[in-house]
Structure formats: structure tokens, C-alpha cells
Write a structure and sequence with these properties.
By secondary structure, this protein is an alpha+beta fold. 36% of the residues lie in helices and 35% in strands. It is built from five helices and six strands; from the N terminus they run ααβαβαββββα. It has helices at residues 2-14, 19-27, 39-45, 68-79, 133-143, and strands at 33-38, 55-62, 87-93, 97-106, 109-119, 123-131. The chain has a six-stranded antiparallel β-sheet with strand order 1-2-6-5-4-3, sandwiched between helices.
Length: 144
């Protein structure tokens, strides 16, 4: 009985993705373009505007040059994403673009903001730091 319950639990969670698994699986995949900025590099590049206060890292995975099979795999992975550490802040379904914004909170601060963009253009964007909730909408708008 215990073995049966364990097997069902493992099988049910196998197909689910966490944010870490999603980024980890696709970051080094052939055809995926990956860009990471850390605090020091962002300061050198002059990216730290007023709305970027508190941002320490930005990671972008772009799927624009990928094969259709990989894009389909991304769509399925994003569709099965379930991560208890993140809350959905926004869902947007436009004509050819779907955007899902997730946040990981620590008290009143956003520790991580994740944008999952699928449809005609596809990207995974992760912004980390100590972000004030009032700055989050500016970051989301800048990433679209």
C-alpha cells in the first residue's frame, strides 16, 4: 500500500516543472540563446535605471532561432509548470503571444520575477534581487 501511494505521487509529479528545472533544462540546449547579467556587469553596461533599483541579476533564454520541436517542448514545459515557491502575478493571452508572470516573495519584497513568454515569440526571463512591488510593472513592461 505504501509503495503504491509513493509510486502514484512520484508519477504525478514527474511531468511537472519547477522554475529551476525549466531554466536548467533549456539553458544549455542547442539553439537557445542565453544571456546573464549580474549586478557588476549591469552597472558597467548602464542598465541600472530608476526602475531597476534592487535588481541584482537578469537571465534571458531566447528561443527565436530554435527548431519547432524544441519550441513545442518549451510550450509543454511551461504548461506543466507548478512551483509552490512562486505566485502568479499576471496572465496575458494576446493574439499570438501568451505571457505569464510569476513572483517569489520574501515579506514585502519580490526576490524573483519570472516571465514566461510563449506563442509567436518565446523567451524565459528571470530577474532576481530585492525588488519593490511598485517597480515590478515597469520591469515587466520593459521585458515584453
Amino acid at each position: 500500500m505504501i509503495v503504491s501511494v509513493w509510486f502514484v505521487a512520484c508519477t504525478a509529479s514527474y511531468g511537472q516543472y519547477s522554475v529551476e528545472r525549466l531554466f536548467g533544462e533549456f539553458a544549455d540546449t542547442k539553439g537557445v540563446e542565453r544571456v546573464r547579467f549580474r549586478n557588476g556587469l549591469m552597472k558597467l553596461a548602464g542598465c541600472m535605471g530608476k526602475n531597476m533599483r534592487g535588481v541584482k541579476t537578469i537571465e534571458v533564454l531566447s528561443f527565436s532561432n530554435c527548431e519547432p520541436a524544441l519550441k513545442n517542448r518549451l510550450e509543454q514545459a511551461v504548461g506543466s509548470l507548478k512551483d509552490k515557491d512562486y505566485e502568479t502575478l499576471l496572465r496575458s493571452n494576446e493574439e499570438n503571444k501568451r505571457i505569464r508572470v510569476l513572483v517569489k516573495m520574501n515579506g514585502e519584497e519580490i526576490r524573483e520575477l519570472v516571465l514566461l513568454i510563449t506563442g509567436s515569440s518565446q523567451a524565459l526571463i528571470r530577474i532576481g534581487g530585492k525588488i519593490r512591488p511598485r517597480d515590478a510593472k515597469h520591469l515587466v513592461k520593459a521585458c515584453q
